[in-house]
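Good morning,

Attaching, inline, the C-alpha cells for the sequence recovery test we're adding to the shared suite. The designed sequence is right after.
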C-alpha cells in the first residue's frame, strides 16, 4: 500500500511539473513556477522591490499563446538584474 501512495505522489508531481514550464528565482516575491510567460511577468511586476538578481527560466519546447502584449514594468538595477533565459535545447514558441 505504501508503494502505491509513493507511485501516485510521483505521478502527480511529474504531471504538475510538466505544466509549470517557467520558473522565477531570485530576489522577488514572485519566485515560483508558472505555466505562461505572461503569468510570470505579471507576478514579477507585482512582486515588490527586487532584493537580488531575478532569473526567469523558460524550458525549451515551451509554447505560449499570447492574446496581447506582455509589459514588464519592474525595473532591475546594475546589482539586481532581471534575466529571461531558455533552459535546454529547442525552440520557444510565442
Amino acid at each position: 500500500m505504501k508503494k502505491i501512495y509513493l507511485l501516485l505522489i510521483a505521478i502527480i508531481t511529474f504531471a504538475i511539473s510538466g505544466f509549470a514550464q517557467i520558473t522565477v528565482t531570485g530576489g522577488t516575491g514572485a519566485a515560483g513556477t508558472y505555466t505562461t510567460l505572461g503569468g510570470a511577468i505579471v507576478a514579477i511586476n507585482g512582486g515588490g522591490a527586487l532584493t537580488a538578481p531575478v532569473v526567469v527560466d523558460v524550458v525549451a519546447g515551451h509554447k505560449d499563446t499570447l492574446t496581447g502584449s506582455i509589459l514588464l514594468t519592474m525595473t532591475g538595477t546594475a546589482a539586481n538584474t532581471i534575466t529571461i533565459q531558455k533552459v535546454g535545447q529547442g525552440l520557444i514558441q510565442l
